[in-house]
Amino acid sequence: MQQLEEEIAETLSILETIFPPSFFDSMVHLMVHLPSQVRLGGTVLCRNMYPVERFLMTLKRYVRTRSHPEGSIAECYIFDESLTFCSQYLHGCETRYNRKARNDDGTNHNNEDILPYFSKNVGRALVGNSNVTMDNQAWLQAHNYVLNNSDHVEPFVEKHFEYLSSLGHPRHEINRLHHETFHQWFRIHVAGLLRSGGHVEDEVIALAESPLMVAKKYSSYAINGYVFHTKSYDEGRPSQSFGVALVAQNSSYSGVSQTKAYYGVINEIIELSYHRKGNIVLFKCGWFDNRVEDKWVKTDKFGVTSVNMAHVINTVQKSSPNRRLNAA
């Protein structure tokens, strides 16, 4: 930003030799002040005036008598406030207090056929509903991510680590074997508990059965009050909703854990089906490379994070859980 602030004057001087004076209006002159304003106040999102402008547009629609605009605005505003107050005592009709949110996921979480764990992990598909058959690698990545990020499966994860440790494997080998073999061990272990009459939660039984290879694929999805798009769907659109950020705790094969922020884009939105017992939506993401500190992901002294989107972590050949993100 400091470099842009120093070079903008020279850039405008060069443009003056190319374009006529009528080109240089207030919007072009605004470029002189933008770098310093960004450094002082952050991005536009942190202090935008769009809510105020939208409210001014609402007030402008109140004007019915152009000779007395202030009186029209005051009368319509009082009328709107009165209706809002009365709507609190109305039942059986839609009001601003009971209407659905703009990004309502539209799902009924009280469906008795769906297990509680799955009901909170689905939303509402908006665009691009299609069926796809996943290859074995993509299916394994998705299944491993769900298992390693489920509270119901966490006790079994600890048991599997203890089992691998009892075999005498080194620490870095245990982490690798856990990621490669846990889903098979988990299915066999749960089946053994059921045969012996042990108590197993319904959610654990459903997760142990593994999802179907055929999944649903979407281009736009609403969940938890937000709308997410895939990168391909947002290409050419004036506004994008395919960016994601995640703060995660990583555990490497060497056993060292660290907390790190990841930034990426949504490439695919996939809904896994667990044999009609429930569905789980995952975002297949492309994550930008931040393995080297302050190289491609930098945070300046003002707290503004810059990401070099040309460097993406290659996870295609790895069964890394960082490739996906749970929509919930």
Notes on the protein architecture:
This protein has 328 residues and is an alpha+beta fold. Helix content is 39%, strand content 20%. It has ten helices and eleven strands. It has helices at residues 2-16, 26-41, 50-61, 69-87, 116-119, 136-148, 154-166, 171-195, 202-208, 231-234; strands spanning 124-127, 130-133, 214-218, 220-223, 226-229, 243-251, 257-273, 279-287, 297-299, 305-307, 324-326. Strands 2, 3, 6, 7, 8 and 11 form a six-stranded antiparallel beta sheet that branches. Helix 1 packs antiparallel against helix 2. The longest helix has 25 residues, at 171-195. 17% of the residues are buried.
Q: Topology of this protein?
A:
Elements: H1 2-16, H2 26-41, H3 50-61, H4 69-87, H5 116-119, E1 124-127, E2 130-133, H6 136-148, H7 154-166, H8 171-195, H9 202-208, E3 214-218, E4 220-223, E5 226-229, H10 231-234, E6 243-251, E7 257-273, E8 279-287, E9 297-299, E10 305-307, E11 324-326
Antiparallel strand pairs: 1-4, 2-3, 3-7, 4-5, 6-7, 7-8, 8-11, 9-10
Helix pairs in contact: 1-2, 7-8, 8-9
